[in-house]
Structure formats: C-alpha cells, structure tokens
Amino acid sequence: DSGVTQTPKHLITATGQRVTLRCSPRSGDLSVYWYQQSLDQGLQFLIQYYNGEERAKGNILERFSAQQFPDLHSELNLSSLELGDSALYFCASSPRTSGSSDTQYFGPGTRLTVL
Amino acid sequence: GENVEQHPSTLSVQEGDSAVIKCTYSDSASNYFPWYKQELGKGPQLIIDIRSNVGEKKDQRIAVTLNKTAKHFSLHITETQPEDSAVYFCAARRGSFNNDMRFGAGTRLTVKP
Description:
The complex is a heterodimer. Chain A is mainly beta. Chain A is 0% helix and 52% strand. Chain A has strands spanning 5-7, 10-13, 19-24, 31-38, 42-50, 53-57, 64-68, 74-78, 87-94, 105-106, 110-114. In chain A, strands 2, 4, 5, 6, 9, 10 and 11 form a seven-stranded mixed beta sheet that branches. By secondary structure, chain B is an all-beta fold. In chain B, the strands form two sheets. In chain B, strands 2, 4, 5, 9, 10 and 11 form a six-stranded mixed beta sheet that branches. Chain B has a five-stranded antiparallel beta sheet with strand order 1-3-8-7-6, with no helix packed on it. Chain A binds chain B through residues 2, 4, 31, 33, 42-45, 48, 55-56, 58, 90, 92, 94, 97-100, 102-109, and chain B through 31-32, 34, 36, 41-46, 49, 51, 89, 95-101, 103-106.
C-alpha cells in the first residue's frame, strides 16, 4: 500500500458527460501528479500541483482540469467525455516538487469507461 | 523531448530463470531512471532506481544497469518467482523535476511455475 488513495475505483459514464476523480496523497506529501494510462499511449503525465498551486502541465486536454485543495487532496475533472478518454487515471504524490531523492508513490488508479 | 523505448513488450520465463528488460532513452540530459512494477488492479510501485552517476545497482534479486554512452538501461531479475509476474515500466527523468518523467510502454512479464 503506497499511502495514496483514489476514488472511485471504477467509473462508467456516457459520452458528453463530466466526471470528477479524487486523490488523497500520502500524509505529508505536498506534490500531486495526475497520469493517464491507456493501452496505446502508455503512462502519460497530465498535470502537477504543489501545495495548492499548479506547477506543470503535460499532455492534458483543455476539457480536463484539476485542482488541489488546502487539505492537499486533489481532484481531476474530465468534461465533454469522449470514447477515447477511457483509460486508467493514476494519481501520484511526492514530498516536494523536485529533488534528486524524491520518489513518486502511485495510487491504485481509477478506471474510467466512456460508453 | 525525451523518448523512452522499452523492449520486449511481453516476456515469458520459467520459474527460477532470469528476466531482462531493456530501455533506451533519447535525451542525454536524463539523470534518473526508476523502474516500476504494476500488478493487476494496482498502481505502479517503485522497485529500484538508478542515477546517472552510477553504473549498476542491486537489491536482492533485482539489479539495474545503466550505460550512459549508449543511453540505455536494463532491469535484471534473477531466480524469478511467480509473484514477479506483472507489468514493468522503465522511466527517465531530466533534471530534478518529477513532472519531467517519461515512461516506457511497459513489459508484461509472466513467470511460469
């Protein structure tokens, strides 16, 4: 158990809908990362938050957004969903935003299925 | 940007044999190379990592080697056990920012009892 929790575990929805994925980082970790894992794209970095502020953006679509709250949990919002958004979404956390000794700890993921 | 290629995509070995997974990277500025193990229904878990100032690192049955000149690194698992069956991902990071990590496509390792 990495100490990172994600809810829900599974999510099934229809095209055009909006969903929210939730992540709680390890106790004390300030940095949260979101990743998308699909069969044909592998693990892709989406976005990073550090202590409530956005720090970096990766391959995140404009239909997707995220935020990190004062208690450090984070939410990833996916809107106008398309079939191609079906994937596993992982959250990872680390103590800082950078540092040669920092390790990312991954949560168990949320499997999103768009029908 | 950084591109990480991983081979093979699937690997099947007999229990007790060794398994080797190889990755190549494109950016010579990459300096941190972690390996993750992902079991079914779980998130990736760090199993070993190596930094660019080291050529080899070992942890019990797992070892990683790095060839900076050739820009490739490998994961070696000896005396494989059925519980080693999982998907393994390599990654490469430039600088010291975790948001600059690039992952390989993964290798599905099956260890037959």
